[in-house]
Predict the 3D structure of the following.
Amino acid sequence: MRSLIYAPAARMGGARAHVLGLVPELASMAPDDDVLLIAQPDLLDELPPLPPTWTLRAERAPLPGVKFQLRQLAWEQRALPRIARRWRADVLLSFGSFVPLRSLCPTVLEAGNALPFTRAYWQVLTREPLLVQVEAHARWALLLASLRAAKRVLTPTRAMRVDVVTRVPDLLKKVDVALWGVAPIFRSLRWSQPSGPLVILGVSKHGINKEFDVLVAALPALRRRWPDIQLILTGTPDESRWSRRSAALAERLKVTEAVCFAGDVPNLKIPELIQDAQLLVFPTWCESFGLPLAEALSMGAPAVAADIPACREVGEDAARYYASGDPDSLAATIGDLLASPDSAAALAHAAYARGKRFDWRANAQGVRASLVQAVG
């Protein structure tokens, strides 16, 4: 099979981790497949040696701004089909939000962003600037067209599959699920109760769907019981308008000295943060998968996540859950674990067992099955 994998959009977070985890497994499973991989230069540099049947082409994602994104979209619609034709591709797998609407070969779309499929996202969007709303509706129109043009659509959880087919029922018969994995380093290091300061860790990019402000709002109640508690968040206060909101809230609540932004931490350094924390909190109101939660579970670390379908699917009974948007619920859930070392230890044991489920090899098998089915 000759495949074209188009992944310049996999710059960070779950999408980047997915490409880095998937590609070596695909190469190992089907070393005779001819594959053209188009991705970010630094992502290509991180990959291990691949079979000679793999061709790598570096391409950067567009710069921020409507003009650059429109230019990139136009290029994808015009030039990408020509590249697929010259490669004589049997199938095109896209890790962006879009596929060419006219392609000589079948396309498979990795739908890794659950936000536009949820009603809550569009409600939150009404509070954003008008230009942001216009951009979002334009991207949704193209995403919808891409979903319908694709031969198969991949989602990382059953929960997201439900979101997709609920919003777009005519996709029901072509949406597949391939659960994501975690990087090997999260399996090689196991969490144990730290002896240092009392640290709660929050890991994720500060996006529209993250509830780091809820986590900050839960801090005063926790400090009344544990005055020395520290909250460490990945990212920076100026990372986004949502991180700025969290930082401003910490100042208003007079807990700034208890909140530390750790900066842009590479994924391979996250295990060190998890090992030093009493537990990991994954605060969110919408997810396609929840990679930081899966990573913590794989290390056997106690974790608290939002009580939403994707987090429930990933964590099952091996995590604790809070009512999304509710600081009191989050403080109570964290407090229950901090107050009961035995409960935290039992949860850590369950987490380690659950974490074994997140395997890139199994994901690669699911992805390749979708590619084969698309080819027919």
Remarks:
- The chain has 15 helices and 13 strands.
